Amino acid sequence: MKIGGMTRSHEPVPPSVDSPGTALRARLARRILCHIREHHLPVGHHLTEQSLEEVLQVSRSPIRGALCALAEMGVVERRPNRGFFLLRPAEALEPDGRAVPECADELVYRAIARDRLAGVLPAVLTETEAMRRYDLPRDRLRAILARIAREGWIERRPGKGWSFLPMIDTPAAYRESLEFRRVLEPAALLMPGFAIDSRVIERLRREQEALLDGNFSASQLEIVQADASFHESLAGLSGNCFVVRSIARINQLRRLLVFQGATVRTRPWRRERVREHLAILDLLERGERRDASRALAAHLAVVEEGVDELVPGASPGDAAPGAACPDGGRERA
């Protein structure tokens, strides 16, 4: 199925473009609409700048402008000192057929991730093949491939085509990524350059408590992003740029699994992991870094359990039956 275009509807679009800043705001507003629609976010959902920063890969200032544009359209409501909340159901938000290409390009980006994880795409991808498969002109395809290259799961070949790099596409690969994290992340908390930033700790606490308060009603992608934010932010406190880059790349590969409908854990399991996150923050605030490091290592060891049931590459006999999740994944029984 070709997915380069979008379906036309009568949904209002952001204001006309008069300046580069306004153009960026309009593009991001349309991409947020696409995000709301794809993840079937419910009325009343809290659209945080931090979660959208991960999705859109831009800073928070233009995201705030895009949310203001959506507030003007009546799609979201801005509540003083609380942020932006969705006013309209996701199924009612169908962008105009002239919607900004970024939204369609996001769908193609995710399709490439799904197809590669499923083994549909070869290890070496030619632009001609990709243009035909995804119904895209060369300039748009190259922009998407450039984004993928920045994220570290494809690289341009010296001659012709693009080579995919290792991904978390099997239980064994997922386990290896966790083994790597268990070596690096606890050690990061003990590095000489590690320094507590109270603002970071408070932000992480708010994000984790929001998951508990909402009983994990957020989309699977947002839950993964909140988890990634926790681990990347702790790595960032190490003061070591190589640690940060390594953890960020692993987390980007983890996010791709969401697009393939990876199995997700049950709410009680996730609730316990979030409580472990909060306990680690408590230890760090008290200056007990060694205990925090040990707690983080134990946390990652628990996460490794049941990997065979979580990764789409597992054999059918390894996967436990579960109920379908609204966001496309399957909840482990």
Structural summary, described in words:
This protein is mainly α. The chain folds into three domains: about 70 residues, Winged helix-like DNA-binding domain superfamily/Winged helix DNA-binding domain (Arc Repressor Mutant, subunit A); about 60 residues, Orthogonal Bundle (Arc Repressor Mutant, subunit A); about 160 residues, GntR ligand-binding domain-like (Four Helix Bundle (Hemerythrin (Met), subunit A), Up-down Bundle). The chain is about 55% helix and about 10% strand. The chain contains twelve helices and nine strands. The longest helix has 19 residues. The radius of gyration is 20 Å and the shape is globular. The protein starts with 19 loop residues before the first helix and ends with a strand. The relative contact order is 0.11.
Supply database-style keywords.
single chain; 333 residues; mainly alpha; Arc Repressor Mutant, subunit A; Four Helix Bundle (Hemerythrin (Met), subunit A); 3-stranded antiparallel beta sheet; 12 helices; 9 strands; 55% helix; disordered N terminus
